[in-house]
Design goal:
- The chain has one helix spanning 2-23; strands spanning 67-69, 86-87, 92-98, 103-113, 122-124, 152-162.
- The chain has 168 residues and is an alpha+beta fold.
- Strand 3 and strand 4 form a beta hairpin.
- Residues 9-39 have low confidence and may be disordered.
Length: 168
């Protein structure tokens, strides 16, 4: 009887571990939902009259690792999704240098889901992009897959904080 009990216990723990991994309990496998932060430390945003300071321009500083349609040209802003869409709770991240203050910031790229492609400005910048086996740093994954409606519309870029350490 004891010989059967050990494999059942192992199966139980394997199922619990699989659930924890799938639910995102491990932060290195799942990025938490981003919180919008429209301002940054230091000198703030670059001059909006320049491409680096214009959130409707592909050269906007926050878009250094973006691959998708700009929410800011689809009815949203750089950090908020267009009306009728929902921000994906899973994300990829990048590190972008703000030219106004020379500081590197961690930027979360969240897809806006629930409507078809908006057809606004398309950006394909790959600074810091990693292969899909580094999902948290890959801009080639359709991140709407975690939503009830997986239709991709556009992407936002949200500043999470100042980047520091060897990996940025």
């Amino acid at each position: 009887m004891n010989a059967l009990r050990i494999p059942i216990v192992l199966v139980f723990f394997a199922v619990v571990l699989a659930f924890l991994v799938a639910s995102g309990a491990f932060p290195f496998l799942h990025a938490a939902p981003a919180k919008a932060q429209d301002t940054v430390a230091g000198n703030g945003e670059p001059d909006p009259a320049t491409p680096e300071g214009d959130p409707t321009n592909a050269d906007y500083w926050r878009y250094c690792s973006l691959d998708g349609f700009l929410a800011s040209t689809c009815g949203g802003t750089a950090s908020s999704c267009p009306p009728g869409t929902v921000m994906s709770p899973v994300t990829w991240i990048g590190t972008c240098r703000n030219p106004a203050d020379g500081v590197d910031y961690i930027v979360s790229y969240n897809d806006c889901c629930g409507k078809g492609i908006c057809g606004g400005s398309f950006v394909h910048r790959n600074e810091g992009d990693k292969p899909v086996y580094y999902p948290h740093k890959s801009n080639d994954i359709g991140w709407c897959m975690g939503n009830a409606d997986a239709g991709y519309n556009s992407t936002v870029s949200i500043v999470l904080g100042v980047a520091d350490g060897p990996d940025h």
